[in-house]
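Morning. Coffee machine broken again, so started the prediction first thing and wrote up yesterday's gels while waiting. Chain of 142 residues, entered below exactly as on the submission form.
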Amino acid sequence: MTHRALGIFFARATLGLMFLMTGIFRVFQMGAVEHAQRFFVGPYAETFLPGWSLWLAGTTVPFVELVAGALMLVGFRVREAAMGIGGVLLVVTFGHLLTEPFFAFDGHVMPRLLLLLVVLLVPREEDQFSVDAALRKVSAVH
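Came back before lunch.
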């Protein structure tokens, strides 16, 4: 066990928890339709974005957060989970900048982006405490 392995575990698990817990709330408590209405359709109705795209993004994001967060937390298919998380961060960033060009990212987007970058920039074989690592060990034996 190395410090690097522990660091990547904590970064990946924290990022996973951040998205998983948000996804659980938005899917099972708030509901995807309410999420879409409150955070996408209502605030961006007066922009150039078509209504169908607001509904599509607003109802999809909670499920991406839920699934990608769970995958990231346990370290299974980390690359795919990172792509989902990165996509959500881009959507959120675009939306905030569309209505507030000088939006402060330090409270919401940047911590998640920095954790995502740590996960993506550290070589996958350094992430020893993950389902992906366990599967690599099993496949190496066979």
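The radius of gyration is 17 Å. Going to sketch it on the whiteboard this afternoon.
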